[in-house]
Write a structure and sequence with these properties.
By secondary structure, this protein is of the alpha+beta class. It has a single domain (31-137), classed as Roll (Nuclear Transport Factor 2, Chain: A). 28% of the residues lie in helices and 41% in strands. It has two helices and five strands; from the N terminus they run αβαββββ. It has helices at 7-27, 42-58; strands at residues 33-36, 63-77, 81-95, 112-122, 127-137. It has a five-stranded antiparallel sheet with strand order 1-2-3-4-5. β4 (112-122) and β5 form a beta hairpin. It is elongated, with a radius of gyration of 24 Å.
Length: 138
């Protein structure tokens, strides 16, 4: 009685397709929420501080930059929190070795940039990572 020899390979193929589809769904990000954030939020403040410090560490400029205007902040929550931040930054009178708050440069050393940062953040654990950065002259 050889009525169904093709059933076993068909069943294995169906299982394989289901496993591939399931693993693909697991890798996709599903946003739980997307929210505009207030600049007064403590997690935003700590993330802005981190972004500024990291930008200044990695910049080739002799002077530090500081945020002068926050244009947009949005949080996206998936299995973690991402802040998407757009800011304007200006070169200050402080060299990189100085850690104080300084005035912004005027005259021929004036430089302003607009930056977008995507930051993985867990501020309650003081864990941050810049996922994407794009800065252009303003």
């Amino acid at each position: 009685m050889m009525a169904r020899p093709w059933k076993a390979p068909q069943l294995l193929l169906a299982i394989l397709v289901a496993l591939v589809a399931f693993s693909y769904q697991q890798k996709r990000k599903t946003y739980i929420s997307v929210l505009k954030m207030s600049t007064l939020d403590s997690s935003v403040q700590s993330t802005l501080k981190y972004v500024t410090e990291e930008y200044n560490k990695k910049s080739d400029d002799l002077y530090n930059f500081r945020i002068i205007r926050i244009l947009d902040i949005e949080s996206q929550v998936t299995d973690h929190m991402e802040l998407h931040i757009t800011v304007e930054m200006r070169r200050t009178t402080c060299f990189k070795t100085e850690k104080s708050t300084c005035d912004v440069q005027e005259g021929e050393l004036y430089k302003q940039i607009r930056c977008y940062f995507s930051v993985y953040t867990m501020p309650w654990l003081e864990r941050y990572k810049i996922l994407r950065k794009n800065c252009t002259s303003a």
